[in-house]
Amino acid sequence: TRTPVNVTVTGAAGQIGYALLFRIASGHLLGADVPVKLRLLEIPQGMKAAEGTAMELDDCAFPLLAGIDIFDDPNKGFEGANVALLVGARPRTKGMERGDLLAANGGIFKPQGQAINAHAADDIKVLVVGNPANTNALIAQAAAPDVPAERFTAMTRLDHNRAISQLAAKTGAAVSDIKRLTIWGNHSATQYPDIFHAEIAGKNAAEVVNDQVWLADTFIPTVAKRGAAIIEARGASSAASAANAAIDHVHTWVNGTAEGDWTSMGIPSDGSYGVPEGLISSFPVTCKDGKYEIVQGLDVNEFSRTRIDASVQELSEERDAVRELGLI
Ligand code: NAI
């Protein structure tokens, strides 16, 4: 039998945590033959609810679940972690300035990065879900100098999946026929969902759509503002779809992208496509053997360039702000 993989989940008592943990335990994160040990990290106020979720996980009698431990100390929560899903974050509350939001999240992601640096397993892979995800990932990465920077990633897979779904609805294609979609930039309203290189059943998606007005005025804003539309409809922010995207992100990273396809991940830039080195920005990536690579050589047209640059500009400003706060 295989040794269990240690998976740390922060914010385990939150709504994404509740949608995520059962799928990890049932084998969807890593594979149907990979046993997992869950390490749940919460703040003291969340411990009791996390214990309740752990009771329910026990009650599922998942064959792959080799154990559950719950902590309110990051140094313990990340001990031996092979995969870490950083979900818990400080949400923006009414009247909160961006600086306050970044400072509050710095207070979470800096110590978590330090704990990962000191205690995680050598093969640690980190996905940051908690918002502002890209910059929180940057803060954690900067606090973990002994961990290769590329192990810190931010989630734009929900945006990627949303874009595929919108494109399928527009064209009548099956989602499984859509490939090579890209989310560029920040997981925020400035993100750029790019269909110019996407394919629908082997044909160029932009040519199949053939509707620049829909692209600019409907598709892009619908994908970028989908989070707000979900809150408006559900009275709560995306949870199951966010958890699903986190599962997809890690599963693809570990198990690879399909031949001829790629995915979108927020990753430290190596300078590709004019994105300043070190910014955690979303790119088209292929994954193989537990590693990812940026898809190179794509032709970026004027329409795309403007939008990528605007989102990357926002990321640069967020980086400047956390630098000023002494968080990186
Ligand atoms: P939630 O408020 O239901 O749960 C958050 C949980 O995190 C709470 O149980 C809280 O006690 C815990 N927490 C807070 N600080 C913590 C810390 N320092 N250590 C450990 N746990 C801590 O929030 P929800 O709905 O689960 O969302 C979590 C985050 O995910 C939010 O920041 C949200 O904006 C973000 N999100 C990101 C998406 C993406 O596409 N990247 C999509 C949807 C949500």
UniProtKB/TrEMBL annotation:
Pfam families linked: Ldh_1_C (PF02866), Ldh_1_N (PF00056)
EC number(s) given by UniProt: 1.1.1.37
Top-level division of the source organism's lineage: Bacteria
InterPro entries registered for this protein in UniProt: L-lactate/malate_DH, Lactate/malate_DH_C, Lactate/malate_DH_N, Lactate_DH/Glyco_Ohase_4_C, Malate_DH_AS, Malate_DH_type2, NAD(P)-bd_dom_sf
Domain Lactate/malate dehydrogenase N-terminal: 6-145
Residues that, per the record, bind NAD(+): G11, A12, A13, G14, Q15, I16, G17, N105, Q112, V129, G130, N131
Gene3D superfamilies listed in its UniProt record: Lactate dehydrogenase/glycoside hydrolase, family 4, C-terminal, NAD(P)-binding Rossmann-like Domain
Keywords: NAD, Oxidoreductase, Tricarboxylic acid cycle
Active site: H187
Catalytic activity: (S)-malate + NAD(+) = oxaloacetate + NADH + H(+)
Amino-acid positions noted as binding substrate in the UniProt annotation, renumbered to this chain: R92, R98, N131, R162
Lactate/malate dehydrogenase C-terminal domain boundaries: 156-322
EC class: oxidoreductase
SUPFAM superfamilies to which the protein is assigned, alphabetical: LDH C-terminal domain-like (SSF56327), NAD(P)-binding Rossmann-fold domains (SSF51735)
HAMAP family from the UniProt entry: Malate_dehydrog_2 (MF_01517)
Job description of the protein: Catalyzes the reversible oxidation of malate to oxaloacetate.
Family assignment from sequence similarity: Belongs to the LDH/MDH superfamily. MDH type 2 family.
Record-linked PANTHER family: MALATE DEHYDROGENASE (PTHR23382)
Alphabetical list of NCBIfam families matching this protein: MalateDH-SF1 (TIGR01759), PRK05442.1 (NF003916)
Protein name according to UniProt: Malate dehydrogenase
